[in-house]
Fold this protein.
Amino acid sequence: MTRIESTFETLKAQNKKALIPYVMAGDPNPNNFVGLLHDLVKHGADMIEVGLPFSDPMADGPTVALAGERALAAGTSTRDALKMVAEFRQQDTQTPIILMGYLNPVEIIGYDNFVALCEQSGVDGILMVDLPPAEAGSFTQHLTEHAMNEIFLLSPTTLAERRQQVLTHCGGYIYYVSLKGVTGSATLDTDDVARQVQAIKAETDLPVCVGFGIRDATSAKAIGAHADGIIVGSALVQNFADIDANDIAAVANAQQKIMAKMDELRGALDSL
C-alpha cells in the first residue's frame, strides 16, 4: 500500500476529507520551500502536490504559470525540486508528496532515471498533465513497482473512452477538474461537480478529489460535501505574486497569509 492509499484509508476511517494544497517547487525562493512544505502539514495538509516548474504549461492559469516563471527565474529545475522533496522527507516520512507537471523535463531526464530519482526522494505520486492514459502503460507499471501512484485528470469534457482509460490506469485518487478552464478560474458550478463526482464514484473505488476554482471556505465546504478531498493551488500561491523573493519579511508575511487560508479550508472541511 502506498502512502497515498494509506492516507485515504485513515481519512475514511476518521470520516475526514483530504486537504491537498498545491505549491510550485522553488517559489518564491528555493531556500524557503522545504519550510513551506512543513508549515502546510502543520496547518492541515493531508498530502501536498508539488508543481514542477515548466516554461510552457497548458493547464495552468496565470497565477500558477507565473509561479512557475518565478521558480525558473530562481534557478529551480526538476532535479532541484526532487532534492527539496528529499530534504522534506528527512523530517516527514508520512505526508504523501505528489509531483504535478509536464512530460518535457521527464523526457530529458529519461523515464527510468526520473522514476529512480522520485523513489530516492520519497515521492508518492506523479501527475503528468500531458501524458495520455492510453500511452502510460509501461510508465504506470514502473511507478507501481516502486510504490508510487500515477494520478490522472478527469474533466467535464472527458470523452467516455478516455474516461475508461483513466479509471483503468489511475492510482491513488482521481483528480477531477471542476470546470472548463485553467487553474484559478472563478466560475464553479457545485451542483454539476456533485453530479460528476457521483458518476465517477459509481465506476471506481478510488477516492475522487476536486481541484480548479476552489478558493475559500464556502467553495471548499460545497465541494467537500461530495468529494473525498479538495485540491487548492491558485488561492495559495497568489500570495507570492508581486513580492521580493529575497525580502525575508515579505516572504514570511506571504506564508502567514497562505497558512491563514489553509486554516480556513481545514476548518471548512472539518465542519462537514
Remarks:
- The chain has a mean pLDDT of 93.
- The longest strand covers residues 18-24.
